[in-house]
């Protein structure tokens, strides 16, 4: 199929495609999403085909008005209301018991549904002109999430009806996913809203063990997405955990002409190998913003090995750590 590239002023055309059961990639503040009518099971099934996504990995439903949530969930408890009031629209996804309206294709057989109210004006306008949208990240399953129009075209051209150009995504990593459906609140995936911010609104909140560690053999994933190999470029990614001096020394000893380094801006002129900067030293928001584009660039530049700094496991650094540790297949070298 031919994939239309639409401008941000062509949301009406995109909404018509959605209403006809088609697939549209849309910009959000986190990453680009691949959207279909959330209540149309056949349309949602086509998302899985276009991405090559395993059918047991559920999707997030995107809304553009808090009142839409009542048709999607069985209950909207007080702690969910407080989080929604504070962080919506924005990069927070809340898991709640699902209503019977939600097709099985969306929830992948679970009795819960994940809901998010994005803040990107184009996403809001598209939902407003159509309906609540089921949308995973708009990448081929397994590759880094798309944060630019170019990334979406590279992965999805010819596989979906349309892509709306909304420029580059501001956050760069996906939303924080929290479950409020199983007793104590628990973060299943860290993202743009930090654990510290969430605790300041609803108090005690756990972080699922799968956020920072691989699942043990046979262990069930609370968030099915966590069990799959993810965010992976073709190159081997290795995290280096140590001081900046030790990082530079390790690279000087180990690099060859197929090595790339995800480095701080300050390091790019002093390291001897291919450098892909991910922002200034200690700026974890910049690391988040650049991460997926940097992993894709490593492949474009045909390197076989990528070394990266190990981010701090706090604030938005926890989201960067969660993504890059998976891209690295949990390979970390302590310096
Ligand atoms: O920022 C984002 O969240 C982006 C943009 C497009 O909104 N979307 C996104 O979707 O990252 P996706 O499908 O790539 O990741 C959703 C994650 C997956 O790990 C999935 O397993 C989990 O959320 N998830 C969705 N529904 C769930 C549910 N009912 N219970 C547990 N985990 C769920
Ligand atoms: Mg994804």
State the CATH class of the largest domain: Alpha Beta
The CATH superfamily of the largest domain bears the name: DHBP synthase
Helix content: 25-40%
Give the strand order, joined by hyphens, for the main sheet.
Answer: 1-8-2-3-7-4-6-5-9-10-11
Shape: globular
The share of residues in extended strands comes to 15-25%
Seen as an oligomer or otherwise, the chain set is single chain
CATH architecture of the largest domain: Alpha-Beta Complex
**Could you say which structural class the secondary elements and strand pairing correspond to?**
alpha/beta
- How far apart are the termini? 50 Å
Task: Provide the list of bound ligands, each named once.
Answer: threonylcarbamoyladenylate, magnesium ion
* Cα radius of gyration in angstroms: 20 Å
Major pleated sheet: 11 strands, mixed
């Amino acid at each position: 199929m031919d994939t239309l590239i639409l401008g941000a002023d062509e949301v009406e055309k995109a909404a018509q495609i959605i209403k006809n059961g088609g697939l549209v990639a849309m910009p959000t503040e986190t990453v680009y999403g691949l959207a279909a009518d959330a209540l149309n099971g056949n349309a949602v099934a086509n998302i899985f085909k276009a991405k090559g996504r395993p059918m047991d990995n559920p999707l997030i439903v995107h809304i553009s008005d808090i009142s839409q949530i009542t048709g999607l969930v069985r209950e909207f408890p007080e702690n969910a209301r407080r989080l929604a009031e504070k962080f919506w629209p924005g990069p927070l996804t809340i898991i709640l018991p699902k209503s019977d309206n939600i097709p099985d294709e969306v929830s992948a057989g679970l009795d819960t549904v994940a809901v998010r109210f994005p803040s990107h004006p184009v996403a809001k306008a598209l939902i407003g002109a159509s309906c609540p949208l089921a949308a995973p990240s708009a990448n081929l399953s397994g590759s880094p999430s798309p944060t630019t129009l170019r990334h979406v075209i590279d992965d999805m051209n010819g596989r979906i009806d349309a892509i709306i150009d909304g420029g580059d995504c501001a956050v760069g990593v996906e939303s924080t996913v929290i479950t409020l459906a199983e007793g104590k609140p628990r973060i299943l995936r860290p993202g743009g809203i930090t654990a510290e911010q969430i605790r300041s609104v609803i108090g005690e909140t756990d972080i699922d063990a799968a956020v920072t560690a691989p699942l043990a053999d046979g262990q069930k994933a609370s968030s099915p997405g966590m069990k799959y190999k993810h965010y992976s470029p073709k190159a081997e990614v290795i995290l280096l955990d140590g001081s900046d001096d030790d990082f530079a020394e390790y690279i000087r000893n180990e690099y060859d002409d197929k090595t790339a380094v995800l480095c701080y801006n300050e390091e790019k002129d002093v390291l001897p190998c291919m450098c892909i900067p991910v922002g200034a030293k200690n700026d974890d928001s910049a690391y988040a913003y650049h991460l997926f584009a940097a992993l894709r660039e490593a492949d474009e530049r045909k390197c076989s090995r990528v070394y990266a700094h190990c981010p701090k496991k706090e604030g938005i650094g926890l989201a960067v750590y969660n993504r890059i540790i998976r891209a690295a297949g949990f390979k970390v070298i302590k310096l």
